[in-house]
Design the sequence.
């Protein structure tokens, strides 16, 4: 018996994949143009401004691949092996961006990658393989801003407008309270190093909450009964702190230096001041094991951890990442705040700075996104507030000079999705190509 005309399952599945793309593009309020002849491009997306309806004359070429399952697929990722002639054809598109969309038509799922960005790396092009992250490369109605970024990186086609919605913005400012007076005395030396040496030779506690300026030592606590007494020529005097905080430029700068000295003293049990980098960083644990602290969000975050340069070669030299903090004290509207600027410090052995520290920092910053920056800010906010959590070592047990309030928040009636700030899918650095692995970044 002769069968009639047939359409095989692959053809039907391919058509369903195109239909899914058409539906997604329509949900984005963009325009889909299907091609009847397919030399490696199934259609184009013509971009329009969703707010005004104005067509941009910006086009994105689309190649669709539909399947029930892709190679190496898990709940979080998969990959696709392209044909060499297809890659060659796509890379000849010049200024016209080409995206590859892989889909599961039966479940209505689709993911995308910007072909030219991905295969601009010769190592990737040699493999003909495109890796997909299911969480960051979904092709859905929220993809619109990233498509505009691919088609028009200079933003001429469309400027996204913030949505009207309530949103809480978390700043990096914390209100700070300090003692109402300070102490000062004439110094017997002009060297800060000599003052510390004299303290260590005395039977009294060594204090770092002091400033040496113009022949006088300024401190938050009574100088008598501390190691500082070895470096003064007469008794100390007590002065209201307002005389510095509300004084002239030189006096206010001295006050800010005193605040910095107090902060360094308050965190001296768990953090170390790095004079070369001009920041505080977490000390290593005695056995160089991982160390976590409780952040202001209530979640533990890593403050110190050791890494191997490559997971596939554990014999490579180890390095350590320390949470670090740059800070600025500033007065706003008659109230004093500390501004937190999280950073990182890299060592070879927990103490000595790694010769590759700048390289490590650069690679980490390229991967760092807003949730990670917010998390690090909340980490330091938790430390400064001194939340008691013995197992996480947030509190060192010593009396603190400064008291910090929670991070200042603001209410806004406009908001922008974090997704809109992401680079085009496929343009992110491939973690397998990086020398580092910061899997706990967020």
Sequence:
């Amino acid at each position: 018996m002769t069968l009639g005309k047939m359409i095989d399952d692959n053809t039907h599945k391919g058509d369903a994949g195109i239909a899914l793309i058409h539906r997604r593009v329509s949900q984005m309020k963009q325009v889909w143009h299907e091609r009847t002849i397919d030399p490696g491009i199934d259609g184009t997306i013509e971009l329009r401004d969703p707010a005004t309806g104005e067509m941009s004359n910006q086009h994105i070429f689309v190649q669709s691949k539909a399947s029930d399952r892709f190679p190496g697929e898990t709940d979080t990722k998969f990959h696709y092996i392209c044909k060499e002639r297809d890659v060659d054809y796509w890379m000849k598109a010049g200024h016209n961006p080409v995206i590859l969309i892989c889909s599961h038509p039966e479940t209505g799922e689709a993911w995308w990658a910007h072909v030219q960005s991905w295969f601009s790396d010769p190592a990737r092009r040699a493999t003909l393989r495109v890796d997909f992250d299911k969480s960051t490369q979904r092709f859905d109605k929220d993809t619109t801003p990233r498509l505009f970024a691919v088609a028009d990186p200079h933003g001429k086609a469309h400027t996204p407008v913030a949505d009207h919605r309530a949103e809480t913005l978390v700043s990096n400012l914390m209100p700070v309270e300090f003692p109402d007076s300070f102490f000062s005395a004439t110094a017997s030396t002009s060297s800060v190093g000599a003052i510390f040496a004299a303290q260590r030779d005395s039977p009294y506690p060594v204090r770092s909450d002091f400033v040496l300026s113009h022949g006088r030592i300024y401190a938050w606590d009574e100088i008598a009964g501390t190691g500082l007494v070895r470096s003064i020529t007469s008794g100390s005097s007590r002065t209201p702190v307002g005389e510095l905080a509300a004084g002239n430029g030189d006096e206010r700068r001295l006050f800010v230096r005193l605040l910095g000295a107090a902060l360094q003293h308050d965190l001296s049990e768990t953090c170390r001041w790095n004079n070369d980098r001009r920041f505080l960083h977490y000390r290593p644990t005695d056995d160089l094991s991982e160390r976590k602290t409780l952040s202001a969000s209530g979640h533990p975050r890593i403050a110190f951890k050791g890494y191997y340069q490559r997971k596939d070669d554990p014999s490579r030299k180890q390095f350590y990442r320390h949470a670090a903090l740059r800070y600025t004290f500033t007065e706003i509207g008659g109230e004093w705040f500390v501004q937190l600027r999280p950073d990182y410090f890299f060592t070879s052995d927990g103490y000595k700075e790694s010769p590759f520290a700048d390289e490590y920092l650069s690679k980490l910053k390229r991967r760092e996104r807003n949730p990670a920056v917010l998390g690090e800010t909340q980490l330091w906010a938790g430390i400064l507030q001194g939340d008691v959590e013995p197992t996480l070592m947030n509190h060192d047990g010593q009396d603190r000079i400064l008291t910090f309030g929670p991070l200042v928040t603001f209410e806004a009636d406009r908001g922008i999705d974090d997704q809109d700030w992401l680079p085009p899918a496929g343009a992110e650095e491939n973690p397998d190509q990086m020398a580092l692995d910061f899997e706990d970044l967020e």
Notes: Residues 33 and 99 are 14 Å apart (CA to CA).
